[in-house]
Amino acid sequence: MKYVITGSLGHISKPLSAALIKKGHNVTVITSKQENAADIEALAAKPAVGLIEDVDFLTTTFTGADAVYTMIPPKWDATDWKGWIEQIGKNYATAIKNAGVPYIVNLSSIGAHLPDGAGPVSGLHRVENALNTLHNVNIVHLRPAYFYQNLLANIGMIKQANIIGSNFGNDKTPLVHPRDIAAVAAEELLDLNFKGHTIRYIVGDERTGADIASVIGDAIGKPDLPWIVFSNEQNLQGAIQAGLSEEVAKNYTEIGNAMRTGRFYEEYEPNKPSFSNTKLEDFAPEFAGAYNAS
Question: Against a cut of 0.90, is the pTM above it?
């Protein structure tokens, strides 16, 4: 089988590519950076260097593929983040149609049922809609939970203020490790049993902010570390002070607000999957390693 993987050597795309290659398949990995080509080749994959903003490049790269894994990378300098995400989704849809790809595994998110009010995840709602305009293309939209790795953004806060938190966390937050997402994506791509346009949720654990603070705190030698639930304005200003642009900070604050109000989980709760392998306690040593190295 021939697979094309977007996302370069990211937390999901790299282990996903390795899993497909291990099974003897032909894998092409799209990257925007020429310097990644050697590392992609070291995986025994073929690098395709180009921009996902370039529909002609995508069409050429997708042509001949049995299946494509699509994801939208972060865009830290976006002036209209949702709009940019939507356009990349439309680029993918056009290239998939032009190339005649029959199967797509698309990385989306819990909360992607929301057309607005969920930051970049509302952009992923638009991506799902763009891909769902395709006829005779089988698509599974993966909707994973909040990445454990997102918690690493709190390292500076912990070191400077001895607190961890966000504008959510009173209730249980679904969490997942990217390697578990990669395992599900590999399963879907290897089996190619999905038909039509479907959704699959991926979650490894559900924990409150207090749980997260306790487990992370124990791992880094701060057993009394508190989780603070900030107001939206406090979260926005804190994100800007941490170096994010106002556009990105506003979008992340939107996600947290949707999580806190419960809107984010409206479609997840009645469709809750079996949990994957990696629990918060399994991630804690990884957090501690990054914390101690920073």
Answer: yes
